[in-house]
Write a structure and sequence with these properties.
2 copies of one chain form a homodimer. Chain A is an alpha+beta fold and about 140 residues long. In chain A, about 35% of the residues lie in helices and about 20% in strands. The first copy, chain A, has one domain: HIT-like (HIT family, subunit A). In chain A, strands 1-2-3-5-4 form a 5-stranded antiparallel sheet. In chain A, a hairpin with a 6-residue loop joins strand 2 and strand 3. Chain A is globular. Chains A and B meet through helix 2 and strand 4 of A and helix 2 and strand 4 of B. Strand 4 of chain A pairs antiparallel with strand 4 of chain B.
Chain lengths: ~140, ~140
């Protein structure tokens, strides 16, 4: 059995936030949008249906947790959810906060504008912010 | 309580295939790609998390059924799954069959090339093909 290794392109483009039971959550290093990806820590998974049914359920629960967290934190005009994988086939689920005044609105973000770098401090602040809200939202879930 | 009405833009851009327990499944009238959408038949739903947890589960089960069916029918190089909704906020979940020789590969399809019309016969044939495979895949699921 193969071991999970994060795809080098995802490694390069994103910063670790935290590990959930199934997925690793990472912030895409593009300051144009609050934009995170969930990547199941399992080898050889390209499509959602390559996961077992029980892992699919966990994936979508983790996606809902991330969506709720981003919604509370950033109050988006719209959230974009996508698993494309044409260039990086390793399954990664995009969650992108969209605003009507963001640089690509109302188009999908891919290929619109170049990545905008975070400063080191902006990046670590945003990672911490998301990490904290996920912790809060998870514990809210547990005690519900 | 509001009643579900399909958004006029989706009505215009797509053809009815069949109703699943939660969603209506429709074929986007763009012959560039086998491309379907799942739309929960519920009013005022924009994000997946606007659905109850049990409806979210049903949505993802229906999405897995559609994905399996498209995979068996079209043997894609990659499937693209997305809920964007920047222009049409009513929740609709895209499932797009991608090939390395399709007109937009490897980019996401939105905004790449104009819609290519199906002939009436191509459209009705494709609708029937997808309807039949979904029926086969659903019954396979039930008897498993």
């Amino acid at each position: 059995m193969n071991t999970f290794v994060l795809h080098p392109q995802l490694q390069k483009d994103s910063e670790f936030i935290l590990d959930l039971p199934l997925c690793t959550l990472r912030l895409i290093k593009d300051a144009n949008y609050p934009w995170v990806i969930l990547v199941p820590r399992m080898a050889d998974i390209q499509e959602v249906i390559d996961l077992s049914e029980s892992h699919q359920q966990t994936l979508w629960q983790e996606s809902a947790l991330v969506t709720r967290s981003l919604k509370h934190l950033f109050t988006p005009d719209k959230l974009n959810l996508a698993a494309l994988g044409n260039m990086v086939p390793q399954l990664h689920l995009h969650h992108i906060v969209r605003y009507q005044d963001d640089p690509s609105w109302p188009k999908p973000i891919w290929g619109q504008v170049p990545f905008k770098a975070y400063s080191d401090k902006q990046l670590s602040d945003r990672v911490k912010l998301i990490k904290d809200i996920i912790a809060t939202e998870s514990s809210a879930e547990v005690t519900m």
